[in-house]
Design a protein that fits this description.
By secondary structure, this protein is of the alpha+beta class. It is built from three helices and ten strands. A hairpin with a 4-residue loop joins strand 9 and strand 10.
């Protein structure tokens, strides 16, 4: 009798898990299909960082321009102007009028931002373990880093995909040290000039 009950429970669990997997897979497919149609993105953003070391919330604002496959301009306009630029394999961080910093980390950050906004990181199983769920007005995809360098910094990334706009509108970055950054994208223009 115990074996029968155990078998029934196992079968039910496998059916439930399979159904969830299909639903989750469809969400990821829809987000990925929308991302593949994106050639350019232009938007404004608000970035809010909550840090254990700093009191209160740090708020930054700026503009983002992205052109597929590999061009990004992430420009902070306040409180301190700076710009992160990705052009092919070259990445640079510019502060004020000074010559920028080039290093591997700056390039990885730029690519992560670009791929998050465009939803491309959903199918990169070497970089992220992805799960997704449907909410009333959005899909929420949780990405757990798989690469050693990124695992040291981030516990997870969460993408909020607006179903009506068919694009990512929020990115949450959860750092290993407990800090959290929320990036809200607004005034989004897709495939414009």
């Amino acid at each position: 009798m115990k074996r029968l009950i155990l078998s029934v429970v196992c079968c039910l669990l496998s059916v439930v898990l399979t159904a969830q997997g299909l639903s989750e897979q469809k969400i990821i497919q829809k987000m990925t299909a929308s991302a593949e149609a994106i050639r350019t993105v232009k938007c404004n953003f608000t970035q809010k960082k909550q840090s254990k070391m700093l009191k209160g919330e740090q708020v930054s604002e700026g503009k983002m321009f992205c052109q597929q496959p590999d061009k990004l301009r992430w420009e902070y306009t306040s409180p301190k102007p700076s710009t992160l630029v990705l052009d092919g394999t070259k990445a640079q961080l510019l502060k004020g009028g000074e010559q920028g910093t080039r290093n591997k980390f700056v390039g990885e950050m730029a690519r992560m931002i670009m791929n998050s906004v465009a939803g491309k990181c959903l199918t990169d199983s070497k970089t992220f373990l992805v799960s997704a769920k449907e909410m009333p007005t959005e899909y929420v995809a949780t990405l757990v880093p798989q690469k050693k360098d990124m695992k040291r910094l981030y516990a997870k990334l969460v993408l909020h995909y607006d179903i009506k706009q068919e694009t990512v509108t929020e990115i949450e970055l959860y750092e290993k040290n407990g800090d959290r950054t929320l990036i809200e994208l607004h005034d989004i223009s897709i495939n414009g000039k």
